[in-house]
Amino acid sequence: MIKRARRALEELPDETILAGLSMGGGVLSEVWAERPVTVGVLLLHATAEIPASVRPGLRI
User: Fold this and answer.
1) Dihedral of the alpha carbons of 42, 34, 51, 14, in degrees to the nearest 10
2) Could you tell me if 4 and 27 are in contact, meaning their C-beta atoms sit under 8 angstroms apart?
3) Is 60 helix (H, G, I), strand (E, B) or coil?
4) Vertex 49, ends 20 and 45: CA angle to 5°?
5) What is the DSSP letter of 1?
6) Where are the domains of the chain?
7) pLDDT digits (tens, 9 = 90+) for 1-60
8) Cβ count within 10 A of residue 33
9) 59 with 50: CB under 8 angstroms?
10) pTM for the model
11) Cα separation of 30 and 51, whole Å?
């Protein structure tokens, strides 16, 4: 699933908002650190580890 998510993100701009629903929160946390200019993160019924590379002021 994570490989699939990475492939899907290759086609999207770096400034994309990442979203994870339930188990998707785990997938989101795997790819989040690789996208330091993400403009927002949406987690529904999920939690994710916040990577050290998160820019200040990121909306979660």
Assistant:
1) -40
2) no
3) coil
4) 35
5) -
6) 2-44
7) 999 999 999 999 988 999 999 999 999 989 998 888 888 999 999 888 888 888 888 888
8) 14
9) no
10) 0.80
11) 9
Q: Which helix (H) or strand (E) holds 2?
A: helix 2-10
| Cα distances (angstroms) measured from residue 39 to each of 28, 29, 31, 36 | 14, 15, 14, 9
Mind giving me the DSSP string for 27-58? HHHHHHTT-TT--BEEEES---PPPTTPPTT-
What the block records as the tokens of 24 is 């998707």
Using the Cα atoms of residue 51, residue 54, residue 56 and residue 57 in order, give the sign of their dihedral: negative
How far lies 4's CA from each of 10, 55, 56, 60, in Å? 10, 25, 28, 23
Give the number of C-alpha atoms closer than 13 A to the C-alpha of residue 14, restricted to the C-beta side.
5
